[in-house]
Write a structure and sequence with these properties.
The structure is a single chain. The chain is mainly alpha-helical and 1001 residues long. Among the domains are: 168 residues, Orthogonal Bundle (Arc Repressor Mutant, subunit A); 136 residues, P-loop containing nucleotide triphosphate hydrolases (Rossmann fold, 3-Layer(aba) Sandwich); 78 residues; 92 residues, Arc Repressor Mutant, subunit A; 159 residues, no CATH class. Helix content is 60%, strand content 6%. The chain has 44 helices and 16 strands. The C terminus is likely disordered.
């Protein structure tokens, strides 16, 4: 049902055929009934409210006539009850209910600190307001309480909206609104307070203090009172110039949804209906043409459903995805899945059980891949839901689609503008007016502007993107001029109307038509970028000959025309990105120009020349991760283009430099093909040697020790031939770690000793610490406990002296695990406090988790079992965001706890399953742990009366089920738990899968 009822202004009833023609008495009667919508209103009360204390003799008959007239005008709206009449909403939109719901959402979001959501809900509530509520009853006392309630709520939303603008840093916009509000409501002290804060945060301290004096004068003249204590204290703090007053409230968003800067107009009913559909289904696909607003509709639906999904609402954009692994990576990034993602099967396995909503945006690039993913999610039987957007249905069996079309433009019957005019009711006009007023507050929909605006919306075919682009030109052009530009034919189209793709092309074309030829060339060249880019990047790649100031002006014009998006950074810098459909258009244009080759060459040169690490200390590998995050999409494109252009050496050098970044961001599997191609094509032997060593380190980190050894041995030959001592030392240290992983501890010690001699000669403090660490690790893991512990302690001190607390904590955590396994309680306890302090000082979640796991290990072996159980549960909860090695962080400490709890059989089964999984990857269990397990096996024989499962044998149950039982034990404090029959999240099995990250010092 498309009918709507409005009382936030003069009464408005709009049906499928337009406004209902109501007579004055019918309007008054309906307004009275709407005061108690869906509740019975007695005939006596209606008579009293319609005619007052002295009704005419024909009042009862007249009431019946007016009710009959209402029923003819709006069928199904009025029903007869035993005592009177009732308004039946029955799916009709009622602006008072919508307003109250939005007020509730806005207040709830504000209480939760979700200011973007609060701003959006408050803005949408205020847009429902057309004037004095129940204006037809403004002189009636019985309506006064509701009119006053709604009016007060509106003022509350104005205050909340100003507060949300301040929290979001939109200070200038807040100031303009607050100036108007204090004039309209001069006695409301919270408005004055917000105005003072906004002025102060804008650096206008004197004006803020003058506002305080004006408010004091108003209160004195009107009420003969002083401002409240809070305002007086605020004025005193401003006089004292307190720095804290300039800091806005924190503004977290809802879940991981993008924060929208504009209000939501035109599809409110779609949001409500789509939300209802998703509450009963596992997935829905929003289908529509480019620029139709699919993404925004999905985001708004996500906001509305946030409370229904305790695990979060996630947003994954596939605009730049071109391969299935890109889809997996985008989802992993959106959901903070830090595991090393290798396939969509892995993503489904990790996420499908969570009570979350995943918004999968722009699926049209990889329809088959996305269809398979969503079908797997549904088939998993888990709790996660998927809301997809695509230009076409995904095509899997049982798919539920929600098709959207352009916003309805007004028909040809446009007359005067007003609350009930065809122009004002058109969603396309509403969107344009909203965006136009944001660009120029003087813009109004009037009887004079309505015809031109209606024609403009029809020419735009109601496409939201086209309307928003057109609205940006309101400050500079008249409506007729914008309409003429919009009416221009894009190349290759005829007069017979535009299809969906060409409609968006037209929207972009008419915006480009107002650019200078030079600026249009600049826009087309920006299609070379594959992600975010800065002004300096544009200059280096797209316009090296252009003066920077002129370039900044041109880029600002492109941003203002919505041709490039702007992302404001915390430090105030601006980064740019082309929206997906617009980039596709520009990319086609660039491919057809003679500038393509030169632009590609500059792009590759610019990004392959990046320098990200500090070379003052060899082997330190200091990497600015956030800076690389900004460039990573463009670096991906540069790697591919560079290899195609024969620049393998440059590609290899940068990939080697990014070793630390790729490890920390779980991109080793993605990096590998590029590095393999580069290493094979390198012309410089030294660069090839470094590439091979880097490939070996990557294979080691992804549990492929045999492959890592092959790479290391090839690299060693080259480094020795080239007499590159630093490269040789680096490769020997990596080789030592690979030997330790395989259980070849003597070879590991030999490689580390040779490296130590080299780095000592070179004077590398970091290199010496790494060498001593690997000597100690190989000694301890090989069974020489005393020597190994001494070297690990020495390595921790060397790392600490070199200013690397995270690596020092890592060394101490290794020391503690060995000491506990070997029964050296005193050594373990002496080290744990230091490890925790160093880990906290490293700002590394991985190191903090590892240190806390070491503390839990000590407690499990020697302390209180309940304390150990609680500590391990806390570690397990932190594993999800940090993703350290599950075997080290959870399972090995837990087996000691299980043993002390009397669950020796389960402890042995956990170790057996874990060792079997490690053996598949060629990873050895260290000697101290093997000795401990052997002693447990001997201990278990008398109790069981038979030989238990021995480590190394294939366990009767898989490692995932064993881990599920372990987690079930840890989740039940105070008693020995029964085994879990259902599947749970596995931690241990992750260590056996290719692509798993294992951090090494």
């Amino acid at each position: 049902m498309n009918e709507s009822l409005g009382v936030l202004g003069s009464l408005e009833v709009v049906g499928q055929r337009g406004p209902a023609p109501l007579r004055p008495a019918q309007r008054r009667l309906l307004a009275i009934l709407l005061l108690d919508a869906e509740n019975e209103v007695a005939r006596e009360l209606l008579l009293d409210r319609m005619w007052g204390e002295a009704p005419p003799a024909t009042a009862a008959a007249s009431l019946h006539v007016h009710v009959s007239g209402l029923r003819r005008a709006v069928p199904g709206l009025i029903t007869t009850t035993p005592a009177g009449y009732r308004v039946e909403l029955d799916g009709r939109r009622y602006d008072r209910i919508e307003f109250d719901e939005l007020v509730r959402r806005a207040n709830g979001s504000a209480r939760a600190g979700s200011w973007p959501a609060a701003l959006d809900a408050a803005s949408r509530a205020l847009r429902r307001w057309r004037g004095l509520p129940f204006a037809d009853l403004s002189s009636d006392e019985f309506a006064a309480p509701e009119i006053n309630r709604l009016t007060e709520r509106r003022i509350d939303m104005l205050e909340l909206r100003a507060r949300a603008l301040l929290a979001g840093g939109r200070t200038d916009e807040a100031i303009g609104q607050l100036h108007e509000l204090v004039l309209q409501h001069p006695l409301r002290e919270p408005l004055w307070e917000q105005l003072m804060q906004a002025l102060y945060r804008s650096g206008r301290r004197a004006e803020a203090l003058r506002a305080f004096q004006r408010m004091r004068q108003v209160l004195a003249e009107e009420l003969d009172v002083e401002p409240g204590v809070a305002l007086r204290e605020l004025g005193e703090r401003m006089l004292a110039d307190e720095p804290a007053l300039g800091v806005p409230e924190s503004a977290p968003g809802i879940g991981h949804l993008p924060v929208t800067a504009t209000s939501f107009v035109g599809r409110e009913a779609d949001v409500q209906q789509l939300s209802g559909l998703l509450r009963g289904r596992r997935s829905v696909t929003i289908v529509g043409g480019p620029g139709y607003g699919k993404t925004r509709l999905a985001v708004e639906t996500g906001h509305l459903l946030a409370a229904d999904h305790p695990a979060g609402v996630w947003f994954a954009s596939l605009a730049d995805a071109r391969k299935p692994i890109d889809v997996a990576g985008a989802i992993a990034t959106a959901t903070d899945l830090r595991d090393h993602v290798r396939s969509l099967d892995h993503v489904v396995k990790r996420l499908a059980h969570r009570p979350a909503l995943l918004i999968l945006d722009n699926c049209e690039h990889l329809l088959e891949t996305c269809a398979g993913f969503v079908a797997q999610v549904i088939a998993s039987g888990g709790a996660m839901k998927v809301l997809a957007t695509s230009r076409r249905p995904l095509g899997f069996e049982g798919e539920q689609t929600w098709r959207i079309e352009p916003l309805a433009p007004p028909g040809r019957e446009v007359g005067v503008a007003g609350p009930a005019s065809p122009a004002s009711r058109s969603p396309a006009v509403q969107l344009f007016v909203d965006r136009a007023r944001a660009a120029d507050r003087s813009f109004q929909l009037t009887a004079e502007t309505a015809p031109a605006l209606a024609e403009l919306c029809r020419r735009a075919e109601g496409i939201p993107l086209a309307l928003e682009l057109a609205a940006r030109w309101v400050p500079a052009l008249g409506l007729d001029d914008i309409g003429e530009v919009l009416a221009g034919e894009p190349p290759g189209t005829g007069r017979g109307g535009l299809d969906h793709h060409r409609s968006l092309t037209a929207a972009i074309e008419w915006s480009l038509a107002l650019l200078s030829p030079e600026d249009r060339r600049l826009f087309v060249r920006t299609a070379i970028f594959n992600g975010r880019f800065a002004l300096d990047d544009i200059r280096a790649v797209c316009a090296p000959e252009q003066e920077r100031r002129r370039l900044a002006h041109a880029v600002a014009g492109l941003a203002n025309a919505s041709l490039i998006g702007v992302e404001r950074q915390p430090d105030g810098a601006a980064l740019y990105r082309l929206p997906g459909p617009i980039r596709e258009f520009a990319d086609r244009e660039l491919a057809a120009t003679a500038a393509l080759s030169a632009t590609r060459d500059r792009f590759v040169s610019h990004y392959l020349a990046r320098v990200y690490k500090d070379l003052d200390e060899p082997l330190q590998h200091v990497v600015d991760l956030e800076r690389v995050d900004r460039d990573i999409d463009n670096l991906r494109a540069a790697f591919e283009m560079g290899l195609e252009m024969g620049r393998a050496d440059d590609v290899a050098r940068l990939l080697v430099q990014l070793d630390g970044y790729m490890l920390n961001r779980y991109l080793l599997t993605e990096r590998r093909p590029w590095l393999e191609r580069a290493a094979q094509a390198c012309t410089d032997p030294l660069t090839r040697a470094h590439a091979l060593r880097s490939l070996g380190s990557g294979a080691q980190a992804t549990f492929e020790p045999d492959e890592s050894l092959q790479y290391f041995r090839q690299a060693l030959l080259l480094f020795r031939e080239l007499d590159d001592r630093l490269g040789l030392a680096h490769c020997l240290l990596s080789l030592s770690g690979a030997h330790a992983m395989r259980g070849a501890w003597a070879e590991g010690i030999s490689a580390a000793e040779e490296a130590r001699a080299i780095v000592s000669d070179l004077g590398s403090a970091t290199g010496l610490a790494v060498a001593v660490y690997y000597i100690g690790e190989n000694q301890a893991y090989g069974g020489d406990i005393e020597s190994g512990l001494a070297r690990l302690e020495e390595a921790a001190q060397l790392y600490e002296n070199a200013g690397q607390p995270g690596r020092a904590a890592y060394a101490l955590s290794t020391l503690i695990s060995v000491a506990v396994a070997a029964g050296e309680e005193g050594i373990a306890r002496r080290s744990v406090a230091r490890a925790l302090t160093l880990a906290d000082g490293s700002n590394s979640m991985f190191q903090r988790l590892r240190a806390r796991s070491s503390s839990a290990l000590i407690e499990a072996r020697y302390g209180d079992t309940e304390t150990a159980r609680q500590m391990l549960r806390e570690v397990h909860e932190l594993i999800e965001p940090g993703e350290p090695d599950g075997v080290v962080q959870l399972l090995l400490p837990a087996v000691f706890l299980l043993r002390r709890m009397g669950r020796l059989g389960l402890a042995l089964e956990v170790v057996a399953a874990s060792e079997a999984a490690l053996a598949v990857a060629g990873v050895a269990l260290p000697t101290p742990w093997r000795d401990a397990v052997d002693s447990w096996t001997r201990e278990a024989r008398p109790a069981r009366g038979s030989r238990p499962a021995r480590p190394g044998r294939t366990p009767s149950r898989g490692v995932e089920q064993v881990t599920a039982d372990l987690l079930e034990e840890l989740a039940r404090p105070g008693r020995v738990a029964a085994r879990s029959a259902g599947p749970r999240r596995s931690v241990a099995h992750a260590s056996s899968r290719r692509g798993r990250r294992t951090a090494r010092p």
